[in-house]
Amino acid sequence: MTLPWLVNFLIALVILGVALVLYLRFVTGSSVHQYFQKKRHRRERAFWEDILRQILQMEQDGRIVSTESLAGTLGRPVHELRHVLGRMSEHDLITEGSQRVRLTKDGKRWALHVLRAHRLWESFLADEARLPMSRLHHQAEAAEHHLSESDLAALDAHLGHPVEDPHGDPIPTAEGELAHPRGTALSQWEGGEHVRVVHLEDEPQDVFNQLLSKGIRPGLSLRLGEMTPQSVSVWIDGSNVTLEPALLPNVEVVEDTEMLTTDPRVSRLSQLPTGERAEILTLSEAIRGFSRRRLLDFGVTPGTRIFPILDNPFGDPRAFRVRGTTIGIRNEQAHEIWVRRDAAVRSVGGGSR
After folding, report:
1. Other CB atoms closer than 10 Å to residue 116's CB: what's the count?
2. Which of 30, 112, 239, 327 is the most core-located residue (most Cβ within 10 A)?
3. For the domain 184-259, what is the CATH superfamily, name and number?
4. d(C-alpha 24, C-alpha 30), whole Å
5. Residues 180-197, mean pLDDT to the nearest whole number
6. pLDDT band of 26, cuts 50, 70, 90
7. Which residues pair with 63 in a beta bridge?
8. What is the pLDDT, as a whole number, of residue 79?
């Protein structure tokens, strides 16, 4: 006669419990109590680091940091945060006074490390893992608590020492220096200007997703059209896109002094017909990290002539001739390379200078 399923379940549970105890004792060298104590400590440390990074970012934005504003930003109860801030103050990481929370010297040093880890990991995920921008922030929040100084030094060198993350935020240096953002919110412009997107705020998530869905990304050149209290029109590659006023504060831009779109011969490399020669003008800042280094190594540099020689029946990548070499460039990258076409010169299979 078989045992009832509940008895079998309890037996299996006991066996798993014994196996866990043996694993902790003989493999990790910890007791069950020590294991959960370490886990609780790691969780607490991660929360402290979230708080430190948030205070630093709020200070950089010129916002006054209070317990209430910090609790609202982090989505935690005020009473819980007040207790945690008290413990952090005891460890000389913050100071509290006159309804304001400030970082101490040690607290700022720790916060810069976490922020550096977050933004370098976002850069890695975007440049190397090619993760969509909508997923970078969440993934980086999980990884930022596990990267040591030596990890960050190696990651920084591997990425080519980037100064900004994929959103356009400055990355703290190993020495703790943090540059100020260089753009102005789109809501501050009058209309009619040629501008380039240098920063895209990723919070709140729904606003960020709306901007991405409209094709707005760091490095993008666009022309501002009519600006009204109800909407703002922007021109991207000849197409008109309407942005609601609520989206504008999350887009920071600078004046695009090159104004490449004013020359009718200027286009993106992705728009260049097969066989037509062109001169490379610039690579957008949207091409970063390993992808940028690869293109530069192959000679895709300003002043070089280039032309597509073969269309891919599957669309991607497309074959281009540059400096006597044939290379494949994905449409996503070709879209961020500006060229000046020479319609009078057609390639006939020869090389390019």
Report:
1. 24
2. 112
3. Ferrous iron transport protein A (FeoA) (2.30.30.90)
4. 5
5. 85
6. low
7. none
8. 92
Q: Which residues pair with 103 in a beta bridge?
A: 94
- Assign 344 to helix, strand or coil: strand
Task: Find all residues with CB under 8 Å of 193, minimum gap 6, and list them.
Answer: 223, 224, 255
Residues 313-339 as b or e (16 or more Cβ within 10 Å = b)? eeeebbebbbeeeebebeeebbbbbbb
Residue 43: pLDDT band (50, 70, 90) is: confident
**pTM of the shown model:** 0.74
Question: Hey, what amino acid is at 329?
Answer: I
**Beta strands of the chain (E only): which ranges?**
94-97, 100-103, 184-185, 194-200, 221-227, 232-236, 239-243, 251-255, 266-268, 276-283, 305-310, 318-322, 325-329, 337-346
Q: Which CATH code is given to the segment(s) 266-346?
A: 2.30.30.90
In angstroms, the CA 181 to CA 276 distance is 39
- What is the pLDDT at residue 37? 64
pLDDT band at 344 (very low <50, low <70, confident <90, very high): low
Find the largest Cα–Cα distance for the chain: 91
For 41, 43, 46, 132, the CA distances from 76, given in Å and listed in that order, are: 19, 15, 14, 28
Dihedral sign (CA 333, 263, 274, 239): positive
Over residues 163-185, mean pLDDT: 90
List of residues 6+ apart from 192 with CB closer than 8 A: 223, 224, 225
CB-neighbour burial class of residue 105 (10 A; exposed 0-12, middle 13-18, buried 19+): exposed
Is domain 32-103 given the CATH code 1.10.10.10 in the classification? yes
**Whole-number Å distance between alpha carbons of 115 and 54:** 9
Interatomic CA distance for residues 91 and 100, integer angstroms: 18
Residue 305 phi, psi (nearest 5): -85, 145
Q: What is the pLDDT of residues 223-247, one digit of tens each?
A: 888 888 888 888 887 788 999 989 9
